[in-house]
# Entry
Amino acid sequence: MHEPSGLIENLFVFVLASFLGLELIRGVSRLLHTPLMSLTNAIASIAIVGSLLMTGRPHESQLITVLGAVAIVCSTINAVGGFLITERILKMFKKRSE
Amino acid sequence: MQETNPYVQYVYLASAALFILSLKWMGQVRTARRGNWAGTAAMVLAVLGTLIAGGITGQGYLWIAVALVVGAAIGTPMAIVMPMTAVPQRTALSHAFGGLAAALVGVAEYLENANSGMSTFTVGALSVEMLLGFLTFTGSLLAFGKLQEIITTKAVIYPGRNLVSIGTLTIAILSAAFLTLNPASTAAFGVLICASLLFGVLLIIPIGGADMPTVIAILNSYAGLSSCAMGFVMNNKLLIVAGALDGTSGLILSIVMCKAMNRSFANVLFGGMGATPTGGGAAKSPTGKAIVGFSIEDAKSILQDTRSVIIVPGYGMAVAQAQHAVKELANVLAAQGTDVKFAIHPVAGRMPGHMNVLLSEADVPYDQLVEMEMINSSFPEADVAIVVGANDVTNPAARTDKTSPLYGMPILDVDKARTVIFIKRSMNPGFAGVDNELFGLDKTMMVFGDAKKVMTELVAAFKAGH
# Structure
């Protein structure tokens, strides 16, 4: 049992990013809450980073590669779908004068 | 797991900065599309950076390529053909995918390293990742089922449900704690997965349709936090940043939703609201007066030559897909010189911002969509308020009746308009199962029928009259 490398740095990053997130999201107009949600949905597919590493590296068990590949499929659906739908939604928002 | 290529961290740093800019730009309509592009660029950078991180074998690249193509082949058509009314379902479904992805990576990580001495902290983070990931997966699937109406949209409640839910959650947490202290225990690993999956189901089953905005936001938060936990496991700061941004976004949205209903998280999750209609005599007003329906012609005569009209859309408009017909009515009214505005309650519909998206789809300019706090002062000056498929968010009982489950919820002050035209499919009470005393007021005109049909007929009546 040893202290994992970079734990305290990671905690710093986590806490600072959370406060930053709170500030940023508070600034989002209520009008945009649906596209905000589909955008953050797409951002949550950042799990793809972990999935890629899991799938790509050599393992003793093929099962791990398969689990990773399924995770890539799920994350890609989210990423591609999330950004496309956000774009579709945002395109619809028009001002009276336009 | 350390990346062998030292430049990868710089790519990740750029990606994290773009994610932050993306959310910043998402704040205003003017810059929102730029925000979406920044997010897309950030994700592309993250993927490219990971691919050059090192350690990936030739066969690994093959697996990755196939998985990426399959994912894109499923995700792209889904996003392009999806009708705008299905946005809530799609959002729920993508939370499910997000949760599953994080959970599966957690499982894979555990299987690979269970016997090679992971630190206590790493196993703890792994347990959190799996717990949140799996409960988000089943919970979101269930939310999807409810929104798609594959399963009942009503709250399913049974005696002792809270005990069962909390018991299951306790088992999940205890097994996570046990696994953290004994990383080699495959039994605890198995129990953790099963209990998390089960808890996701139990969490959503007792929640009714109108509480979905809050629930979707909470699930959004969980999906982000599980990515965050993955970042701690893999010692990857990009995962932590993006996960934290996502987690806080869901958190804030759910707080906004709860405030708009004057309810606490606990009440939304464990209250079982909307399970049983309490209003017995449906076709009676609170004073016992029978409620009569008015005709399209009656409604038309009231709307003719009005100075100002406020339209209040709700979930009924979404169900009937009436947004285009509503927009047409707004056009007809504007053509006769009426000032038309839309009053948007924060929890109208099935997800945060639902009404704004539907009306934007129908080409309603967004500066006509007015938030509750801004428009409530305008109702006393409005000649007519037209309620299209909204109910609980207009119920004056929320202001006056301390015994009402709606008491304390901020509402749109529809009752202060000179006349209220209330379009409703039937006399069934709203989601909360509470009668709306608006129906019995002398100034209220009930027009029964499908929202789209009523709107279309109203527009036709106006056009015929010219």
Observations:
- Chain B touches chain A through 117 residues (CB under 8 Å).
- Residues 84-270 of chain B form one domain.
- Residues 276-287 of chain B have pLDDT under 50 and may be disordered.
- Chain B has 17 helices and six strands.
